[in-house]
Amino acid sequence: MRDPLRMWPGLALVSLIAATSYGLIRMTGIGSYGVSALTLAILIGAVLGNLKPAIAGGRCQPGLAFAQKRLLRAGVALYGFNLSVQQIAQVGSAGIAIDVAMVVLTLAVGWWFGRHVLGMDRETVLLASAGSAICGAAAVMATLPMLQARDPHAAEKGTVAVATVVLFGTLAMLLYPLIYAWLGAGHFDFGIFVGSTVHEVAQVVAIGSTIGGDVAGNAVIAKMIRVMLLVPFLLLLGLSLRRADGQGRSAPLPIPWFALVFVAMAGVNSLQILPPALVDALRLIGMLLLTAAMASLGIDTRLSRMRQAGPRPLILGAGLFVHLIVIGGLVNWLAA
Description:
Layout: H1 2-28, H2 37-51, H3 54-57, H4 61-78, H5 85-117, H6 122-135, H7 137-148, H8 154-183, H9 190-197, H10 201-211, H11 214-228, H12 230-244, H13 257-271, H14 276-299, H15 303-309, H16 312-335
Helix pairs in contact: 1-2, 1-4, 1-14, 2-14, 4-7, 4-13, 4-14, 5-6, 5-9, 5-11, 5-16, 6-7, 6-8, 6-16, 7-8, 7-12, 8-10, 8-16, 9-11, 9-16, 10-11, 12-13
């Protein structure tokens, strides 16, 4: 019982932050502005961690480490209950093709721009690109365990990546309704455009609610298909990291079990064999686990370390934001 007892202070702290973040989202209405419990938790954690830096390295450290690894992976696995085959079928083959194209293009552009133009390190580029390409902070958090064994500073880089997602996703909530008012509904399915190019699920919901109509429903469905693409991304990332590290076939492929469970949970959700109340409870548990992991990541964040990263992550995030709007609009127009 020694190790579990050592983890309780840290777990209690991140659980309190997670519950507070989720409660604020539900009770204050700020979620309608595209703010998610995940981003709120990392903000609260960062404020606390910078005001009292000793927290991250004291009695709370074992629990914080547990949250960043175990709770994070369990939360990603349970996130599969937010997806179903029925949702995917609603947008049709064209919507799926657009999502796949945008994820692949965004990852490729992010890698080229970050590594070859800006000269950034591999981990920061991967985290920022995954957040922009797939599902914002949740994608950053899902990618993080794949990189932590190789980079002791991966958690800090993850925080920087989340910051870019929050910043440019917030700009998207202001810009996309203006784009819709300018373009109108006749050029392509604007809902799929929103879902295939905006960073966070909460931000997609906020934009869809602002525009209304079919845009709102199609935007969320297209976004959830992008979330599903997180799994093949993680599997391919594990393979590419093994080759990049020079391990070749000598080491086993690092398969992220939580990603496979994510797919399995989506399959169970598609079958609709569980009571709706149980599914809702599992979704809530998954969200709280992810929120607790984000809180732990925030506590471990130091503003001084973020300043050391310099302006390049911000430039990368801006470049990917422009790519999502311009190239995303072109892809949607060509597929219409």
